[in-house]
Amino acid sequence: MKKVRSLESLKRIRVRLRREGRKVVFTNGCFDLIHGGHIYLFRTAKTQGDVLIVALNSDASIRRLKGPSRPIFPLAERMEVLAALADIDYVTWFGENTPQKIIAALLPDVLVKGGDWGADEIVGTKEVEGAGGRIYRVPYLRGHSSTNIIEKIEKNFGPKS
């Protein structure tokens, strides 16, 4: 099965999954440096339904949100890494600052975000809940942050050149 899919392809897949009565779970993020907190998020998200879709911010989107030194890994490489994880069924991407468009198009049954996101900060809540879905916040694992890892590396080995 090809895991990396465009939004158009995922919309067709979503129609089929809905017909089959399968519950779709969706999460998103930059996922620039995969760490234990991310794996915990994906594993927990997968327990909330049958099919897990993960959407990644594009490189330009990450630069707008996190600055010119990010991402560490380009989109193609980040998608390849996530596609290799067993808990993830499909991987896609978005160029906007938020996944609003994808969430509105797919209307997942469960929208998952990490517990570091406040309930009022989760993009797509209105659409998902309006369609009968729910939001699930995965408890945050302290000390698991790509930004913190990058800062630790820079402190010990110097800034990225």
Explain how this protein is built.
It is a single chain. The protein is of the alpha/beta class and 161 residues long. It has a single domain (7-157), classed as Rossmann fold, CATH 3.40.50. The protein has seven helices and five strands. It has a five-stranded parallel sheet, with helices on both faces.
Outline the secondary-structure elements.
Blueprint: H1 7-19, E1 24-29, H2 36-46, E2 51-57, H3 59-66, H4 75-83, E3 90-94, H5 100-106, E4 110-114, H6 125-130, E5 134-138, H7 146-157
The whole-number mean of residue pLDDT values reads 91
Outline, from the CA principal axes? globular
Give the low-confidence spans: none
- Largest sheet: number of strands, sense, barrel closure: 5 strands, parallel
Oligomer: single chain
CATH topology: Rossmann fold
Distinct helical segment count:
7
